[in-house]
Amino acid sequence: MNLIAELAKLDLPPAVRAAILAQAHADLVVKTAAQAALIQAKSLLIEKLEFELSYLRRMQYGAKTEAMSAEQRSLFDEEFDVSAAAIEAQIAAAHTDDASTPARKPRIRAGRQPLPAHLPRTDVVHEPESCRCGECGKHLVKVRTDISEQLHVQPAVFSVIRHIRPQYACRSCQTMTAAPVAPSIIDGGLPTSATLAWVMVSKYVDHLPLYRIRQMAERSGVNLAESTLGSWVGTTGWWLQMLADRLIELLRQEKTLHADETPIRQLDPGNGKTKTAYLWAYRSTPLSGTAPIIVFDYQTGRAGQHARDFLKDWRGELMVDDYGGYKALFKAGVTELACWAHARRKFVDLHKANQSPVAFEAMRRIAELYVIEAQAKALTTEERYALRQAQAKPKLVELKVWLNETLPKVAPNGAIAKALMYSLRRWDALERYADSGLAPIDNNPVENCIRPIAIGKKNWLFTGSERAGQRAAAIQTLLGTAKLNGLDPQAWLTDTLEKLPTWPNSRIDELLPLRPVAEK
Where do runs of H (alpha helix) occur along 313-465? Predict the structure, then answer.
């Protein structure tokens, strides 16, 4: 509607007409400003949602270390939960202290998960003080029972097991008879198998130095010298070495393996300093369908010869990063598989630095490959191969064409060009997984096994010697494999240490921390 034309038809005084026009103009200005503010708010919301979507994609499809490691996220979530609970408690206390403030309605919480059924239960019955009604004095009638459960934990409890063996004599034969002493890891030693397992798990799973384990025992009034704990660890490690060696033999029977390495500080007494050693890790692929195995190999250097010595005459598919130490293996007949997580990380770093559209497009295309892998995870080897051929293979072809077309358009020797060249230079190894139903798409499975050790070494700082490092690698092999198979390391190790002294070598596989695939 044309307001000026409509006003011209009316016989209004000029002053009234001017006032109406002024008011209309003011209303229009206010309305326009409101619409502009609304558009700006929606634009900010869209920008925020797009950022969150990009973040979630990065967290879902990329290596966790590209944004925030699992441990960092855990610490962040932990601090958020602690702070939120503290604030809620403070608010509740403020409402309680201030009588003038109306009581706050209790927050409706989602139903919590039931406590595990396998945990032992201790029933505590709470009866009212009187079974008579407080109003009329008559006897109360039980109508129902309200049951609530709380989780209770009891820290490590030390106790003493007394072995009493009565001695019997035969007066006629002049002989003595008594029950035999059961063989143990440490003959006539102080610890039970459970105690040895507790020390080993505390040191190699929870990454506690021996002096902290000693302090934990002291709080219960038990004095354990660090030298004593050290001798327990050394003796137990020697007994477990044969199991670790058997796991290595089984690992070499796998057709596809992951490999990676992480630096470890080793004490160098001659110089009064430390030197760099390496913990090499080899893992069976989760796609094999067999019980998972992780093996750690401690070496004093990072030379590729260490990998060749470990794998010996093994010839299969090996998933590794771009470290040159593995190149000799590939020349000797091992098939190279390249890690898409490493290739993607190049583009993630670029996108973080300058929001590069080229990097984002590369990330989007690689994410499509991971979507297909998520669908293929639960399939059989044959079904996974068919899916990769039908869906992943065409996308890989398109991705390579895009990489080749994009490379001439970016600055030579720039960061984007280097990221593009990294994928093109390793393309044969990167796309090889799609021609197999068994090969993995990245090296994340073995990196996830190494990460807890990389964090734990901040507690113990260095290994004392090469022998200590090799012993630790053998123990980490067994306990790490137990965790991969869903076994409780403490329970498995306790049972194994009890059986090991009398167990026949012909049945050693029964002691390995491998759960049958059908039970997993």
Answer: 327-331, 340-354, 357-376, 381-387, 393-406, 415-425, 427-431, 444-460
Quickly tell me which residue has 């895009």 as its tokens.
402
Count each helix (H run) and each strand (E run) in the chain, helices first. Answer: 17, 7
Contacts for 320 with CB less than 8 Å, ≥ 6 apart: 258, 259, 260, 326, 336, 337, 338, 339, 443
In angstroms, the CA 63 to CA 43 distance is 30
Higher model confidence: residue 98 or residue 165? 165
Amino acid 118 reads H
CA angle 146, 151, 155 (to 5 degrees): 145
| 476 contacts: CB under 8 Å, gap ≥ 6 | 204, 279, 296, 453
Of 85-99, 286-300, 363-377, the one with minimum mean pLDDT is 85-99
Provide the pLDDT for residue 297.
Answer: 93
Entry pTM: 0.73
User: Distance between CA 516 and CA 488 in Å, rounded?
Assistant: 15
CB-count burial class (<10 Å; 0-12, 13-18, 19+) for 9:
exposed
In this structure, what token pair is assigned to residue 183?
């063989």
Q: Mean pLDDT in the chain?
A: 82
CB 21 within 8 A of CB 8: no
Q: Which range is most confident: 126-140, 173-187, 453-467, 490-504?
A: 490-504
3-class secondary-structure state, position 4: helix
The rounded distance, in Å, linking the Cα atoms of 447 and 282 is 10
Instruction: Give the torsion through C-alpha atoms of 484, 310, 281, 489, to 10 deg.
Output: 40
Contact predicate 511/499, CB 8 Å: yes
Q: What is the pLDDT of residue 101?
A: 46
Q: What own/partner pairs with CB < 8 Å and gap ≥ 24 does 383-390 have? A: 383/437, 384/287, 384/437, 384/438, 385/435, 385/436, 385/437, 386/437, 388/433, 388/434, 388/435, 388/436, 388/437, 389/434, 389/435
Rounded CA separation 259/338 (Å): 11
* Amino acid at site 126: H
Confidence (pLDDT) at 23: 77
> Is-contact 414 365, C-beta < 8 A?
no
d(CA 189, CA 497): 13
The CA distance from 220 to 466, in Å, is 34
Contact 242, 508 (CB under 8 A): yes
The Cα 194–Cα 205 span in angstroms is 15
The residues spanned by each domain of the chain are: 186-307+453-520, 340-442
Backbone dihedral angles phi then psi of residue 262, each to the nearest 5 degrees: -140, 140
At residue 333, the pLDDT reads: 93
